[in-house]
């Protein structure tokens, strides 16, 4: 592997992988994406992948001679080392608003609906009831926050990390969990608008790889 080669280990339908894929795309950073099948083959549980990511999760990014794990840490690194175009607002308040939205998604929604949780339930119905309940609570919170912070994007008129977190999560909620978001007008309108943005069209799980 070339010293300057950037490799993203991930799963196309993983919201965490999509965040990083979108960040790389937005900053126009060339990279190679290598599939880790976390559903059928469960390749994340192999010793080969464990050597790449000890947590045995996706994504992992090989960059600058190092391997980084955890999507938000990876995005922070990209923002620090490849600052243009920026994914964080300049204003301290706007930056805090961005982080509020990110935390609700990354900490309050995503972990409570991921594939790994299924093993903790006896039936698919139990898993879906649990996940949909917690997603609904998160959506309610996001709707109230976005009423105050959103413009063309989650925070004003600048695309930020909040948008990179929002789109993949809403995609999973509306497809994999079969939930509807129409009763959240701010959220649903923003989601439709963001899906048409080049960064999300080009990195969409169903886009040409």
Description:
This protein is about 50% helix and about 10% strand. It is α+β, with helices and mostly antiparallel strands. A four-stranded mixed β-sheet has the order 2-1-3-4, covered by helices on one side. The two termini are about 20 Å apart.
Low-confidence stretches: none
What is the CATH third-level topology name of the largest domain?
A: Glutathione S-transferase Yfyf (Class Pi), Chain A, domain 2
Helix content: 40-55%
Mean pLDDT across all amino acids? 95
Shape: globular
Structural class: alpha+beta
- Second rung of CATH, namely the architecture of the largest domain: Up-down Bundle
Specify Rg, calculated over alpha carbons. Answer: 17 Å
The rounded distance between the terminal residues' Cα atoms is: 21 Å
Instruction: Quickly count the helices.
Output: 8
Q: Assign the CATH class of the largest domain.
A: Mainly Alpha
The domain tally reads 2
Reported for the largest beta sheet, the result is: 4 strands, mixed
């Amino acid at each position: 592997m070339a010293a300057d080669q950037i490799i993203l280990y991930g799963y196309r339908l993983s919201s965490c992988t999509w965040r990083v894929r979108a960040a790389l795309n937005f900053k126009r950073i060339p990279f190679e994406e290598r599939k880790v099948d976390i559903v059928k083959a469960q390749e994340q549980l192999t010793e080969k992948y464990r050597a790449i990511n000890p947590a045995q999760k996706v994504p992992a990014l090989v960059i600058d001679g190092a391997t980084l794990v955890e999507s938000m840490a990876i995005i922070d690194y990209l923002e620090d080392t490849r600052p243009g175009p920026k994914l964080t607002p300049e204003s301290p308040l706007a930056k805090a608003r961005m982080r509020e939205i990110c935390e609700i998604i990354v900490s309050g929604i995503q972990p409570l609906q991921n594939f790994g949780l299924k093993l903790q339930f006896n039936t698919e119905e139990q898993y879906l009831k649990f996940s949909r309940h917690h997603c609904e609570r998160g959506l309610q919170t996001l709707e109230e926050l976005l009423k105050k912070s959103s413009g063309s994007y989650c925070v004003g008129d600048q695309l930020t990390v909040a948008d990179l977190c929002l789109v993949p999560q809403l995609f999973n909620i509306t497809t994999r969990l079969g939930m509807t978001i129409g009763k959240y007008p701010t959220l649903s309108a923003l989601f439709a608008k963001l899906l048409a943005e080049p960064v999300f069209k080009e990195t969409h799980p169903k886009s040409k790889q």
